[in-house]
Specification:
The structure is a single chain. The protein has 215 residues and is α+β, with helices and mostly antiparallel strands. The protein is built from six helices and twelve strands. Helix 2 runs parallel beside helix 6.
């Protein structure tokens, strides 16, 4: 029988012994539309993100879009789309994800099959509460090239290496030159200053340098 645990920071439940077909059925229920699910070989975590969690996710999204617009970079944002593969017996939903290198290829594609289609080039994880499942291992299994993790203080750039493991770097390969330190500073001001003011400040700081590698 499946058991459940709950984390206190954000409503988060973990069920064990959940078959793949049950996971799919739970994922498609209308009442679970706003529930984030992470599935890892029978373990199913379900959580409802807090307002604070979503504020950070939106802020990262706004900064990425500002950078892309300033640098005329074509990106395809797919928000919290479900990434799943039955052959891996795993599935997850990032807080945001983007196709950049594969944007043109994936732009008009509606039905995604991650056994054959490329995974997102970049995934965003807001880790202000502890997850019971280690999602980086899932991202590794799917081959996501880069994951940005924000823990409420620091923005960590995790890049997949040749051994298909993540290493933390100070810069992004998906968005060369992206000012990680500036993004961290603005994220810390989320909830203090308005999103409009923070994005405006970011655009002024990059001064039309979006998408250009720092010299």
């Amino acid at each position: 029988m499946a058991t459940a645990n709950q984390c206190s920071a954000e409503p988060r439940f973990v069920l064990y012994g959940v078959p793949w077909q049950v996971y799919l059925a739970l994922r498609t229920l209308p009442e679970n539309e706003h529930v984030r699910m992470t599935y890892d070989r029978g373990a199913l975590e379900m959580m409802r993100p807090s307002k604070r969690h979503e504020q950070f996710a939106v802020m990262v999204e706004l900064l990425i879009h500002a950078w892309a617009e300033e640098g005329s970079i074509d990106i395809l944002g797919c928000r919290t789309m479900t990434c799943r593969r039955e052959d891996l017996d795993r599935g997850f939903e990032p807080d945001n994800c983007y196709y950049v290198a594969h944007e043109a290829e994936m732009r008009s594609k509606d039905d995604l099959d991650l056994r054959h289609d490329p995974p997102p080039d970049l995934a965003i994880e807001i880790d202000i509460s502890t997850s019971s499942l280690e999602k980086l291992e899932l991202y590794e299994a799917f081959g996501v090239p880069e994951v940005w993790r924000y823990d409420g203080d620091s923005l960590h750039v995790c890049r997949l290496d040749a051994r298909r493991h993540y290493a933390v770097h100070s810069s992004s390969l998906v968005f060369p030159g992206f000012p990680i330190a500036d993004a961290e500073r603005l994220l810390r001001e989320t909830g203090v200053a308005s999103q409009t003011a923070l994005v405006k400040s970011f655009r002024q700081s990059i001064g039309g340098q979006g998408g250009r590698t720092s010299e």
